[in-house]
Amino acid sequence: MNAADLPAxxxxxxxxxxxxxxxxxxxxxxxxxxxxxxxSVVVVEKGSEVGAHILSGAVIDPIALDRLLPxxxxxxxxxxxxxSADHFYxxxxxxxxxxxxxxxxxxxxxxxxxxxxxxxxxxxLAQKAEALGVEIYPGFAAVEVLFEAGAVAGVATGDMGxxxxxxxxxxxxxxxxLRAKYTxxxxxxxxxxxxxxxxxxxxxxxxxxQKYGIGLKELWQVAPENFRSGLVQxxxxxxxxxxxxGGSFLYHFGDNLVAVGFVVHLNYENPYLSPFEEFxxxxxxxxxxxxxxxxxxxxxxxxxxxxxxxxxxxxxxFAGGALIGCAAGFMNVPRIKGSHNAMLSGMLAAEHVxxxxxxxxxxxxxxxxxxxxxxxPIGRDLWRVRNVKPLWSKLGTFVGVALGGxxxxxxxxxxxxxxxxxxxxxxxxxxxxxxQCRPIAYPKPDGKLTFDRLSSVYLxxxxxEEDQPVHLIVRDVALxxxxxxxxxxxxxxxxxxxxxxxxxxxxxxxxxVINAQNCVHCKTCDxxxxxxxxxxxxxEGAGGPNYPNM
Length: 550
Ligand SMILES: Cc1cc2nc3c(=O)[nH]c(=O)nc-3n(C[C@H](O)[C@H](O)[C@H](O)COP(=O)(O)OP(=O)(O)OC[C@H]3O[C@@H](n4cnc5c(N)ncnc54)[C@H](O)[C@@H]3O)c2cc1C
Ligand code: SF4
Prior knowledge:
Layout: E1 10-19, H1 23-35, E2 41-45, E3 59-60, H2 63-68, E4 81-82, E5 85-91, E6 96-98, E7 114-115, H3 118-131, E8 135-138, E9 142-148, E10 151-157, E11 160-162, E12 168-173, E13 176-185, H4 192-200, E14 212-221, E15 231-237, E16 246-253, E17 257-265, H5 275-282, E18 296-306, E19 317-318, E20 321-323, H6 339-358, H7 367-372, H8 377-383, H9 388-412, H10 453-458, E21 472-474, H11 477-485, H12 492-495, E22 501-506, E23 509-514, H13 524-528, E24 534-536
Helix pairs in contact: 1-3, 1-6
């Protein structure tokens, strides 16, 4: 059936529609209701419930929560473990050097911060938002932006009940149109609608390309003797070489829980590199492996994060809406923190939306939001660290990070000898042809400390309706074979943390197999495919991981 023959979608009108129930979207919703309780606000979330698709570290800087919900610290319903110790190591293959805390600029200190599950924080924020009258629709992905006279006028959720071959099943139902005076896009890193809006309104004009990393994480329940409540530990170096950026985090919190994760910058060059295997290797280092002895891995997942910072944040506002949170890229890379800026940006945008609505405006550009963020705490946070990522990319881990540290010190004092550095090429253009690189032999998993990809994906509780169109769109299949496979040796089979992509030889023919049901919605393929030939689009609502507390 073509689109013109379909029954019309039902439409609902709101003052504000918010896409994504992460920290940015929920903070915006709460702030709007705090300022103007009569405002009608709806939040759509593609996860089966709020928090189901949230994956973070997470050590949070409480600046945003303190402003949004000042009573949160005394609230036992929101579990949070104060940071008790803050360690930073440079790793070699068998040794580790601890960097003294006094060498770090004060902005890098984690004292006064809290270890949380960001998924749980979002569930808590959702309860607060609903108590204020916000309508939250989990299980509904926004798949289309609605336009009126060139301005954004809301979003449509996806149709349900379409089979893999495109025919409409008995369960077919049309999506809903959620129309609004203003629409805030809070989809997180590499949001699918945000990507389209950035292109359509050329929001990236005059900006540096956005940079990304992939973060992989496991949650462990460790033996009580290995638990140190509030210990926060970061590393750089091994198993990554000097030319590949990234590092690990290890946070002890809650009831004998340890969040362990590994970030690989997506401007890596060697197509044989596997972020998943690097993470597994990292856990075998003598500094950390004993933490997991006698413990149990309870969850696994992965998510892209933005790394471009100050110079890559696109224009935020456009007619009828704005980008907030990591959809715009407010992550502070050296601090490995973005949730505070996500919330602050949601709150700032909400204040400008509330003022616009009070003035009887609709569908115009929130110019004040755009004008204010660089002078706000978000801008101050990102300005001081703006050269760390470019120096790291250009000079490698050892020299780049040392110089980056120096630049953070001087920027904290109010000046920088480096000015504002450029990032250079986008991440997808960084891969070298396989012929110029050496294959990497990764050790086999032992099933106790290190694991394979499929048993890991099982712990993400990922679930998709199998009979639906594949939500990973390969634009040009011939190009995928001629370039992704023949030139780059099929990096998707290695960078995808869920084993979605495989090149399979059958009767002398190569076939690109896409196991879409395993996808954990990290968005790495959309970022790293060397030809930008893969588009991640939202699958049927509620599909994807079901993280309990990531
Ligand atoms: C491995 C890792 C470790 C991190 N560690 C830390 C840390 O320790 N401290 C810290 O402060 N920050 C950390 N961050 C960064 C932090 O997680 C982000 O800055 C923060 O989550 C951004 O919030 P957000 O609301 O913008 O986006 P997200 O948290 O990504 O939330 C976006 C929400 O929108 C939903 N969504 C997306 N598209 C659609 C759509 N089309 N329709 C409906 N719903 C949609 C998603 O399902 C999701 O629920 C880390 C990130 C990663 C990946
Ligand atoms: S298919 Fe793409 S978005 Fe899904 S898990 Fe793999 S890399 Fe991530």
